[in-house]
Amino acid sequence: MAEVLLFHHVQGLTDGVRAFADDLREAGHTVHTPDLFEGRTFASLEQGMGFARETGFGTLRERGVAAAEGLRPDLVYAGFSFGVTIAQQLAQKRPGARGAILMHSCIPVTEFGDSWPDGVPVQIHGKEGDEFFDEDLPAARELVKSASSAELFVYPGDQHLFTDASLDAFDAQASELLRERVHTFLSSV
User: Fold this and answer.
1) Number of other CB atoms surrounding residue 41 within 10 Å
2) The 150-155 sheet, strands edge to edge
């Protein structure tokens, strides 16, 4: 079983993020869900982005990196949207990563180094019509080409946070397929 450090999206550690983590726990994985927003959740992306800007993206990323410090290094780093920025940074820069799961976002590899680390498998998930993921799709395709073990899954539709059952953007069918793929990934790392 894998140990996962899962970072929430910009609307906070919502019930939907908690449910996703609980699903992984039920399969036997250890899942850590640090609350980078200190208990705050937001009803919209705009409100969450406002809080993140006010707090400072750098400050929030530092909280995420600090959450990893007390944990063993051989983790799978996972994130939803904003949380991908931290998960990807840790997967690329912290030695010992077992894998990365990047949902709803992907940052250019060069943001955190010269290349994706050898031997670190990665999965990337997003919707084909999601305006935010569409911006990240070139980076996702480049990462898949450059990594030795990488998968990119693009789902039909335009919802951004489609995996969060507590939000209006939730897509049960796409979310279930994503979960199946994540379970398969975690059983292989």
Assistant:
1) 18
2) 30-32, 3-7, 76-80, 99-103, 122-127, 150-155
Please provide residue 72's backbone torsions phi and psi, each rounded to the nearest 5 degrees. -65, 160
Closest to 21 (Cα-Cα) out of 137, 128, 161, 179: 179
CA separation for the pair 138, 107 (Å, rounded): 9
Q: At what angle do helices 45-55 and 57-69 cross, to 10 degrees?
A: 80
Sign of CA dihedral 168, 172, 177, 178: positive
Helices (H), 94-188: 131-146, 172-188
- Most distant pair of Cα atoms in the chain: their distance: 40
One-letter amino acid of 150: A
Q: pLDDT per position in the chain (189 positions), as tens? A: 999 999 999 999 999 999 999 999 999 999 999 999 999 999 999 999 999 999 999 999 999 999 999 999 999 999 999 999 999 999 999 999 999 999 999 999 999 999 999 999 999 999 999 999 999 999 999 999 999 999 999 999 999 999 999 999 999 999 999 999 999 999 999
| Token reading at 97 | 């990563």
